[in-house]
Design a protein that fits this description.
Length: 118
């Protein structure tokens, strides 16, 4: 009888130790999964940021980033995308004709673009 009780207690102890180890591994895996999820969200946010930046450049709304005072050819022209495309030998299209005539803060895009060209 005593031998049976000892074996029972040993089985209980071993099972509980195994359960504790598995719980620890599961908690670690869950923590790593949360970290991976946050890293993926950060990558998605970075991708969205780059897409938004590309859209601004595509619409000619970030020319100031391209000019940056480094080149007199571009500075003050307001048509930096034409000059840059011309230097690269690409066909130059009338970017201004593509721009929307919507408004931003009471100012039309066309008026804003005209003020940039001055």
């Amino acid at each position: 009888m005593r031998e049976l009780e000892r074996r029972r207690e040993q089985a209980v102890t071993e099972s509980r130790e195994e359960a504790q180890q598995r719980n620890s591994r599961a908690e670690m895996a869950e923590r790593q999964a949360r970290i991976a999820e946050q890293e993926a969200a950060r990558e998605r946010a970075e991708a969205n940021l780059h897409e938004e930046r590309a859209a601004l450049h595509e619409r000619g709304l970030a020319d100031h980033e391209l000019i940056g005072g480094e080149n007199d050819e571009l500075a003050g022209t307001g048509r930096s995308d034409d000059a840059v495309a011309g230097r690269r030998g690409e066909g130059v299209e009338d970017v201004g004709a593509r721009r929307s005539t919507g408004t931003t803060g009471g100012e039309t895009y066309a008026n804003r673009d005209e003020s940039l060209e001055r």
